[in-house]
């Protein structure tokens, strides 16, 4: 039985595939925010670039929300009170082609919000209204035990950094480079990880 019509994904095709998906669906609204999905992703990547982030960090910032495109949930899922677990869906997509630091930033970007809300009072005050709303659906701030466990993440610093870029990447009308600007970055990260994995 043929289950999918999607093209076979490999290290040569994954970046083009991601570009096609983001290009086709990027104009959708970003769950209750005042920027589109593509604007949000590009602003996050641009923040990483402005801070001289590594290729891996730029890739992580750009792709942190890619899981929104892999599920079957409607765009207004959060309005309906459903947490669509986009972080796990996104991590499952990227871990096939990207290094663990990128996957971890994707997988844990929601938990990072819950962690930062528990450990940094100033962070909570910076959340958008939509982000405060989804925080409730996502379990609210971590308790002390959860926060202690989260602190043991091997890529904690990178995960928290991507989360802060995520929160800052919601400025209506902010100019960024286009998606095409970031595709060579993604390709470099995929190629480097492919070599490292097979060497
Ligand atoms: Fe986001």
Structure, explained:
The chain is mainly α. The chain has eleven helices and no strands. The protein has helices spanning about 15-25, 35-50, 55-65, 85-95, 100-105, 110-120, 120-125, 130-135, 145-150, 155-170, 180-199. Helix 2 (about 35-50) packs across helix 10 and helix 5 crosses helix 10. Residues about 1-5 and about 70-80 have low confidence and may be disordered. Fe (iii) ion binds near residues 40, 64, 65 and 166.
Give the topology, please.
Elements: H1 14-25, H2 37-50, H3 55-63, H4 86-94, H5 100-107, H6 109-119, H7 121-126, H8 129-137, H9 144-150, H10 156-168, H11 179-198
Helix pairs in contact: 1-11, 2-3, 2-10, 3-5, 3-11, 4-5, 5-10, 6-9, 6-10
Fe (iii) ion binds at residues 40, 64-65, 166.
Quick rundown:
By secondary structure, the chain is mainly α. It is built from 11 helices and no strands. 59% of the residues lie in helices and 0% in strands.
Sheet-strand content, in percent, reads under 5%
Shape descriptor: globular
Q: How would a textbook summarize the main sheet?
A: none
User: What molecules are bound to this protein?
Assistant: fe (iii) ion
CA radius of gyration is: 16 Å
Q: How many DSSP-defined strands?
A: 0
Which features does this protein show?
mainly alpha, disordered N terminus
